[in-house]
Write a structure and sequence with these properties.
This protein is an alpha+beta fold and about 350 residues long. It folds into 2 domains: about 230 residues, P-loop containing nucleotide triphosphate hydrolases (Rossmann fold, 3-Layer(aba) Sandwich), CATH 3.40.50; about 110 residues, OB fold (Dihydrolipoamide Acetyltransferase, E2P). The chain contains 8 helices and 20 strands. It has a 6-stranded mixed sheet, sandwiched between helices. Strands 13-12-11-14-20 form a 5-stranded antiparallel sheet. Helix 3 packs across helix 4. The longest helix has 18 residues. The chain starts with a strand and ends in an 8-residue tail after the last strand. The protein binds adenosine-5'-triphosphate (ATP) and magnesium ion. Adenosine-5'-triphosphate binds next to helix 1. Pfam families: ABC_tran, TOBE_2. It comes from Metallococcus carri. Keywords: ATP-binding, Cell membrane, Membrane, Nucleotide-binding, Translocase, Transport. One of its GO terms (molecular function) is ATP binding.
Length: about 350
């Protein structure tokens, strides 16, 4: 199902929880809504599902305005954050529940419960109660219950957040498989960037009720629309250099000049230059400035150098082969790969280059 969201908004009292969101989700896409706590993710999802009424804007399903259509008539399957399985019912009865409410004939109910259970691979547990399942298995039952009505839209609100790290990784892969097999348009809420980046076709990044950037994971990372997008995605966080840009040269507050970090001809009074750690090179053959190596951090397979550049501190991802402890305390020529350098307006956070 194709979903069009136009200028969607929801206000609680006087405070907007979601504001002016416009986006189109294509049939069969796997979309993540990503953003910090309180940014409006659940409110967005609940408006798509018809659980919360918008105070502005419209939602179209396959071209039909459903803004005022109640939840039970929208053909959506919902998985809530705390699965909310019925503890006294068996797995089979839990999955069957939405069909029983709709008075679907018994034989068909059986067949569809079996199909949904097989899809999420809980077939062997149909007679158990939720308490007799692991967290991951309970999660699958909740997904089966959402899928049993053959919804044209599957909505999931942080469904993996109660699982331990390893199980989360497994369930991500499972969820992708289930989504592809069921061919159902899916919107998945998470505040975990790795989850969003690994699972989604495209991600809606939200902040303070606004849609900041809606793109595939690669574009979100490589081409952030705002400083917020640049800082929210990436680990370690993107380095930030504040200062004035004159014809591509950046002057930091303490007077240190970083030559040609921005394109020639660019002048910005108050800029924040974002630099990803993997695009910083020490011992550069095209140095932009000199910087002091303060420490090396060995994180598994990677090494990060903590570097002081004037009044700024940078983290640089370096190759194990290039560095050793003797570098600590020395000055090195530092360079930047132009692809990983983004210039933002310090005031508005908007991307300039
Ligand atoms: N029923 C409500 N009444 C009043 N304010 C609400 C209500 N529901 C949500 N809000 C407010 O709207 C904003 C967005 O809430 P929402 O639940 O959509 O955030 P979220 O992104 O899902 O956060 P989290 O990651 O913590 O679940 C918050 O500031 C929240 O306090
Ligand atoms: Mg939420």
């Amino acid at each position: 199902m194709r979903i069009e969201i136009r200028e969607l908004g929801r206000t609680f009292g006087s405070a907007p929880a979601v504001e002016g969101v416009s986006a189109t989700i294509e049939d069969g896409e796997f979309i993540c809504i990503l953003g910090p706590s309180g940014c409006g993710k659940t409110t967005m999802l609940n408006m798509l599902g018809g659980i919360i009424a918008p105070t502005a804007g419209t939602i179209l399903f396959d071209g039909v305005d459903v803004t005022k259509v109640p939840a039970e008539k929208r053909g959506v399957g919902f998985v809530f954050q705390n699965y909310a399985l019925y503890p006294h019912l068996t797995v089979a009865k839990n999955i069957e529940f939405p069909l029983a409410i709709e008075r679907v004939p018994r034989a068909e109910r059986r067949r569809r419960v079996r199909e949904a259970a097989d899809l999420v691979q809980v077939g062997p547990y149909l007679d158990r109660r939720p308490a007799e399942l692991s967290g991951g298995q309970q999660q699958r039952v909740a997904i089966a219950r959402a899928l049993v009505k053959n919804p044209s839209l599957l909505l999931l609100d942080e469904p993996l957040s109660n699982l331990d790290a390893r199980l989360r990784l497994e369930m991500r892969v499972e969820l992708q498989r289930i989504q592809r097999e069921a061919k159902v348009t899916t919107v998945f809420v998470t505040h975990d960037q790795d989850e969003a980046m690994s699972i989604s076709d495209r991600t809606m990044l939200m902040n303070r009720g606004r849609l900041v950037h809606f793109a595939d994971p690669q574009e979100l990372y490589d081409d952030p629309a705002e400083l917020f997008a640049a800082t929210f995605l990436g680990n370690p966080p993107i380095n930030q250099l504040r200062g004035r840009i004159d014809d591509g040269d950046l002057t930091l507050a303490d007077g240190t000049i970083v030559q040609g970090i921005a394109p020639a001809g660019l002048t910005v009074d108050a800029a924040i230059v974002g630099v990803r750690s993997e695009t910083v090179t020490l011992a550069s053959t095209a140095p932009r400035a000199r910087a002091r190596v303060e420490d090396l951090q060995y994180v598994g397979r990677d090494v990060y150098a903590d570097v002081r550049l004037g009044d700024a501190r940078l983290s640089a991802l370096v190759s194990r082969r290039e560095v050793d402890r003797s570098l600590v305390g020395t000055e090195v020529p530092i360079g930047f790969d132009a692809d990983g350098v983004h210039v933002f307006d310090a005031e508005s956070g908007r991307r300039i280059r």
